[in-house]
Design brief:
eight-stranded mixed beta sheet, alpha/beta, binds NADP nicotinamide-adenine-dinucleotide phosphate
Length: 308
């Protein structure tokens, strides 16, 4: 409206995707404890409002819920409208929502947990892998959530981050997103050459991966084919590359990735060796990085590490 000047919300405002459980919920808790106004998002309204209630019961009142399915454009647009209307800016976006893109057969959860209890880290992972299948539909959903979802949410919220005096994006990545898992040196080099890489090419690579997945051509075409989880590894590597391209394009923002560590959550049937408190540490460092601080980087837990 002519002549009307909108006052920006005084607190820092953060959006966390997949905030209803696991590492996302813990990031919400720690951000709120640091005085940030947190928009806890979840695809399921009931789970999201329950999570806000739980944080509220611990004295964290500056947390509100908003529905968000990260792979859905209109859901993301509704979230952007809400933030614009209510706060006029966004300071921190944490792209945390993620899936592993597999199906694990567990007939009896109790004996499953008992069997796992006697094993150490890598044995547990190996045992889970043996009971896991990776159907094409799950691979497709994995790319859609972890890579395209991150992109959809980021693109929609970017103007609001630019309205902040210090916009930050934290992408919750994974060790599995490192380029060392790609069998093909050419593909590895292409994904590491950020100066020559475009967002369009990343979308194209996502399509090529799915085609090769369907045709059983992952190994010959250089995708991560050994050790399982090819869709997860590819989705996180593409999201890392997207994060780096964006950091280069927007030097006014701080845009970084973090591997949280092997954290005990639902995603790994609580086999992780870190607590969610420990797993959220790197994300908090990046979310609260000072203006002019690191950008285009990857943290392995809390230490800067290469993308390869
Ligand atoms: N735990 C680890 O050891 C580990 C290691 C490396 C990286 N990570 C990464 O850390 C992040 C968090 O994982 P976590 O361990 O906390 O797993 P989690 O407990 O399984 O939580 C995953 C969260 O993502 C949400 N989500 C999934 N798909 C979504 C979608 N399409 N739209 C919106 N929300 C969606 C889930 O919502 P619902 O409750 O509705 O399913 C849930 O809130 C993921 O990106 C994961 O890849 C975890």
């Amino acid at each position: 409206m002519e002549g009307k000047v909108r006052c920006q919300y005084e607190k820092e405002v953060a959006v966390v995707t997949g905030g209803n459980r696991g590492i996302g919920l813990e990031i919400c808790r720690q951000l709120a404890a640091n005085g940030v106004m947190v928009v806890l998002t979840a695809r399921d309204e009931k789970k999201g409002t329950e999570a806000v209630k739980t944080l509220g019961a611990h004295g964290l009142s500056h947390v509100v819920f908003h529905q968000l399915e990260v792979s859905n454009q209109s859901s993301t647009a509704r979230l952007a409208d809400f933030i614009r209307e209510k706060y006029g800016k966004l300071d921190i976006l944490v792209n945390n929502a993620g899936i592993v893109g597999t199906t694990t057969e567990i007939s009896d959860p109790e004996s499953f947990q008992q069997e796992l209890a006697g094993m150490v880290g890598m044995e547990k992972l190996e045992w889970i892998r043996k009971h896991t299948t990776e159907p094409y539909e799950k691979a497709e959903e994995c790319l859609r959530t972890n890579y395209h979802g991150t992109k959809i949410v980021t693109e929609e919220l970017l103007p609001l981050l630019q309205s902040s005096s210090h916009g930050r994006i934290v992408n919750i990545s994974s060790y599995f997103g490192l380029l060392r898992f790609f069998g093909g040196e050419e593909l590895q080099a292409e994904l590491n050459n950020i100066d020559n890489l475009s967002e369009e090419r990343l979308d194209e690579l996502s399509e090529l991966f799915l085609k090769d997945y369907k045709d059983g051509q992952l190994e010959p075409h250089g995708w991560p084919a050994e050790g399982g989880y090819p869709a997860y590894k590819t989705s996180k590597a593409l999201a890392n590359a997207y994060s780096r391209i964006l950091a280069k394009k927007h030097p006014e923002l701080c845009i970084n990735c973090v591997h949280p560590g092997y954290v005990s959550t639902d995603i790994n049937f609580h086999t992780g060796n870190l607590t969610v408190e420990e797993g959220a540490r790197g994300a908090l460092i990046l979310a609260l990085v000072p203006k002019g601080g690191m950008t285009g980087a990857f943290l392995d837990c809390t230490e800067v590490a290469p993308f390869v």
